[in-house]
What we know:
heterodimer; A: 5-stranded parallel sheet; B: alpha/beta; Rossmann fold; 5-stranded parallel sheet; 3-stranded antiparallel sheet; 17 helices; 55% helix
Amino acid sequence: xxxxxxxxxxxxxxxxxxxxxxxxxxxxxxxxxxxxxxxxxxxxxxxxxxxxxxxxxxxxxxxxxxxxxxxxxxxxxxxxxxxxxxxxxxxxxxxxxxxxxxxxxxxxxxxxxxxxxxxxxxxxxxxxxxxxxx
Amino acid sequence: xxxxxxxxxxxxxxxxxxxxxxxxxxxxxxxxxxxxxxxxxxxxxxxxxxxxxxxxxxxxxxxxxxxxxxxxxxxxxxxxxxxxxxxxxxxxxxxxxxxxxxxxxxxxxxxxxxxxxxxxxxxxxxxxxxxxxxxxxxxxxxxxxxxxxxxxxxxxxxxxxxxxxxxxxxxxxxxxxxxxxxxxxxxxxxxxxxxxxxxxxxxxxxxxxxxxxxxxxxxxxxxxxxxxxxxxxxxxxxxxxxxxxxxxxxxxxxxxxxxxxxxxxxxxxxxxxxxxxxxxxxxxxxxxxxxxxxxxxxxxxxxxxxxxxxxxxxxxxxxxxxxxxxxxxxxxxxxxxxxxxxxxxxxxxxxxxxxxxxxxxxxxxxxxxxxxxxxxxxxxx
Lengths: 134, 381
């Protein structure tokens, strides 16, 4: 699955990227610590999932992903954040998951498993649609 | 699909059950007042979704969810709670949604749409027969109860706004507060930058105006911030705030809630908190108090009508939550006693009086009013 990563903190960006790198089926298609650049890049790349911090300085992670969701409604948004305070809003937004920093391998593993199921099923339905067309 | 509801408070259960039935897509087949009872049901019955309170004695909702998740991983879990603090844990437990009490029909419908695949809210209305008026009545475009928020009606959710400065936000709130009236520039600078020299304050005001215009262009293009003859005004372009809707409908409903229980309930569900309470604006206080009194009166009248319509559970739920806000209000205590009596529960009615009496005594060194005492004494007869 194709993941894009956005975190204003370079250290934690590198750390999450490293942890994601441990999964052979995860393709980190891009990462950035700069929200505006990240949004326009992610828009073009259409990732399966966006891993994003809730606090990005000039724009909140929720507002940022909201903007992206308008164009990519199927995007799975996974918050990776030091702050608990946006979790209720994340539910409102139907975020895919909400992980607290420091991120642990064990918790990330569960998200990846769920992502596999979620992305896998999409490939499947696309295949089914193709079958129908034929 | 079959739903189970778990909450240790019966009135909360009854309220949720009614909302779920009104929606029509889920069938509430089991109502349980403890997690243990719920889990026993799950062993016997097929359940697709569990609505789970968190704060419960013995086994709390988080523990219950963990158990359910392990044993029946296919069941959708929706937390229903008065606390926002456990949402991170809810994600850990793979809950499908997290609803804050008090729940309104619109938010519940969103949650149900996540459980019932390929269902839209329009179908829900058709299935459940919610009256067209309450279904089509959209959320107002600007929310001012609790905190200032912009509501995106197309996306059916609050659109988070990142304010560059707290002053821009306050300016926007203040102009909304003034309706579509012209507000002199000097009034705005005095309010927002009272200790700053005039020319500097004017610069700040310009910057804030610019930011608001930019925001409106992006999020609410119908609205416009106008400037003429040293004054500003915010034109709505048809966008209404939740507070204005409340004030308008309040006038229509108060004194005639009878037969209009659902609209009154829907209106009260709009009040998710005090007027701009999150922001502590001094200028908002008197309106906040007025709105709070109105909400209170409407809720009291609604409770009375619920009771008269035989929905004593609803009445008691409403009065109990009002009493939490206003623990010394005599009127609430009297109505609560009467509602318990109506429900055939004199014991609870008496307990309600005694708890009230004790609270007044301990916390205020006072006694209940004679009228309240009379209601109590009549119970004894």
